[in-house]
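Risk register update: the risk of archive-format incompatibility is retired. Evidence:
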Amino acid sequence: MTFNMDGAGFSMPLGASLYGPPPYEFRDAEQVSVCFTADAQGLAALIPPGLEVADNPAQCEIRVCNYHWSTFGPFHESYALIRVRDSDGTLYWYLPLIFTDNEAPLAAGREIWGYPKKLATMTWDWGRSSDRVPSNELLHFDVERPRGTTLFSVTFMPERQADPAERHGLPVVSHRYIPPSQAGRPPAADELIMVAHPKTLQRDASGAVKLWAGQGSISINTRSEIDPWYLLEPISVTGGYWQVSDFALPAGQIIR
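Archived output:
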């Protein structure tokens, strides 16, 4: 029997693929977004050539996610977004930092779109008395890397039903960089990749969309040069949202 590329699968390892081709389906995707401003000069170190921070101070979001069901299985995720401008003036969200706790979405994210995913320990908790967070009105999300060292925490308290028009989406751009396999050669990949996909908000029993606004907060607990989330230290928090949605994550589009 000989090796057949046509039947070898979609991803590494060929013949025993870790994940299949996009689109990747997500159902009951629960997410909290905290909107804030941060120091544009410090964040410039995270932005690749061809893009620049669009605002001063920078407009940012940190999103924490509890994916109850997906093509990759259930997992948690946390990522940062910075509003940037392309050379032609087009606005995007740029994704410089992201954590997950599942092997398959880590590999797919890095290999397909260049999402700079790393593994971390994450806790999504509304405050059950059996856990270390006492019962209260707050969602509490911790990110530890390594386990026992909290890099940052996000909290959210819902206050009111939100109008979807309050949330203005932008395509997300990432930098797919794969270093050369041989010294002296150019990178195997060096691309800016844009992904734009709609999310369908779920509705509750009364027909209202599952989108709530409230008070969000971000606590940067550890200054780490290995995982420099401290560069996103908020100047001011401008909003917080909780939502539940369904969506499909497609392949990207190379813009540079």
